[in-house]
Specification:
Layout lengths: L2 H12 L7 H6 L7 E6 L2 E6 L1 E6 L2 E5 L5 E5 L13 E7 L2 E6 L1 H4 L12 E5 L6 E5 L4 E3 L3 E2 L8 H4 L2 E7 L2 E6 L1 H9 L4
Parallel strand pairs: 4-13, 7-9
Antiparallel strand pairs: 1-2, 3-4, 3-10, 5-8, 6-7, 8-9, 11-12, 12-13
């Protein structure tokens, strides 16, 4: 008799919890959103969904190694003589985070900052940077790599390494760290 069967029988006799066999217990497990299991032969591996966000017509992927969060912004503190696309600073749990409108940095028109803006914050501490986004990031788990990257705004060219397609939408591999280092270099 297996050890787990002994525990199950003992639990049943005592009138307490009924134990499941390990295989049955795992079958009840529901993985968290964004984590999918794929079977390749007999080896089971985890496949993590990528997350993408929209800024205007652009779909950009969040680097899987980057900590990020979406926060509502209640107020933005503008700075005098700020460069185009820099909205100001936001207070995120006592930390000042620079807030950019990526749409403007890429040549689009400036939108009015409002209290209902959704902001995607990349990183934390001194490395944190926020961007205004159009809607919540979405989980993408069936990306197909494109053979070539579509035409991009000049400011974005050097910071996109690949393009992917899912459900007819193009998603770009975006190096946000290098982009904001370059975009801010002249203003620091």
């Amino acid at each position: 008799m297996e050890p787990s069967a002994n525990l199950s029988d003992a639990a049943n006799r005592s009138g307490s919890v009924q134990w499941l066999q390990p295989g049955d217990a795992l079958a009840c497990f529901e993985p968290p959103e964004g984590l999918h299991q794929a079977v390749a032969g007999k080896v089971q591996k985890e496949v993590r969904a990528r997350y993408g966000f929209r800024v205007g017509a652009l779909g950009l992927l969040i680097d899987p190694g980057t900590g990020s969060e979406v926060v509502p912004v209640s107020s933005v503190t503008p700075l005098p003589d700020a460069p185009r696309g820099f909205l100001g600073l936001v207070n995120l749990r006592g930390n000042l985070v620079p807030l950019y409108e990526l749409h403007v940095l890429l040549g689009g028109d400036r939108r009015q900052a409002d209290a209902g803006m959704m902001v995607l914050v990349f990183g934390q501490g001194e490395q944190a940077v926020g961007v205004v986004i159009d809607g919540y990031p979405v989980a993408l788990n069936q990306l197909s790599q494109l053979h070539s990257v579509p035409q991009l705004p000049d400011a974005l060219q050097a910071h996109v390494s690949a393009g992917y397609m899912q459900d007819g939408v193009v998603w770009l591999e975006f190096d946000h760290g290098a982009f904001f280092d370059e975009a801010c270099r002249d203003y620091v």
